[in-house]
Design brief:
By secondary structure, this protein is α+β, with helices and mostly antiparallel strands. 36% of the residues lie in helices and 21% in strands. A 7-stranded antiparallel β-sheet has the order 1-5-6-7-4-3-2. Helix 1 (17-43) packs antiparallel against helix 3 (65-82).
Length: 213
């Protein structure tokens, strides 16, 4: 990939891709496990307690089942849509990591399937960086720590890619905030860059409802 960017004088050590993937997979597993435990406690806990005779069989006893259903619904949506671990893994297999000195959060948008961040990834002193949208690959609704020191990017910004925190290994899957606006940039690219984006499945501009494919 040919990006016209110059590295700053001091660049942190390049993250180990396998360690990054392992860190995010564990974080995703913890996220899902916590939600599942909460769902079981809310939905099955009252039923078990009634069967054991610990609490009386009444409408108040089974009330926790209602929020349990909501938690279940939102968990399915977040795992299905907001979690982009496998998409990030594919991008990291196709692109090397390149250091960008600025990762600036601009806005947070709450969606039914999770939290979408608007951000700008750039090199200090350079202008024209596109506005991007990103979701936490581990499913968390929080902005990951560590981007105060910039970030490592795998991908091609007019198509999207992955941004990895240099200190925590957290990663965001990103796509252009306005896909059509960057179409002229994509048309001017070398065929090799466009082909690489297709192989990494970044050429699909569908957003804001990200999918695993």
């Amino acid at each position: 990939m040919s990006n016209d960017i110059s590295r700053p004088a001091t660049v942190p050590a390049t993250p180990n891709v396998e360690q990054v993937l392992s860190h995010n997979f564990r974080a995703l597993a913890k996220f899902v496990a916590f939600r599942l435990c909460l769902i079981v406690a809310l939905m099955l806990g009252p039923v078990v307690c009634i069967k054991l005779g610990v609490v009386p069989d009444s409408a108040f006893t089974v009330l926790p089942i209602v929020p349990g259903l909501f938690v279940l619904t939102f968990t399915v949506l977040r795992v299905r849509f907001a979690t982009r671990y496998f998409a990030c893994k594919r991008v990291l297999r196709h692109y090397p990591l390149t250091h960008y000195s600025r990762v600036a959060k601009k806005e947070i948008r709450g969606k039914a399937y999770g939290t979408v961040f608007t951000l700008r990834v750039s090199i200090r002193g350079q202008h024209g960086a596109p506005l991007m949208r990103g979701v936490n690959a581990a499913g968390s609704p929080r902005w990951p720590a560590g981007f105060d020191e910039g970030g490592w990017v795998a991908g091609d910004l007019p198509y999207g890619g992955v941004v990895v925190s240099p200190t925590t290994n957290a990663m965001l899957f990103i796509k252009p905030d306005d896909w059509d606006k960057l179409e002229p940039r994509r048309r001017e690219m070398e065929p090799e860059r466009a082909d690489l984006a297709r192989r990494a499945r970044l050429a699909n501009g569908k957003w804001p409802e990200p999918r695993f494919s």
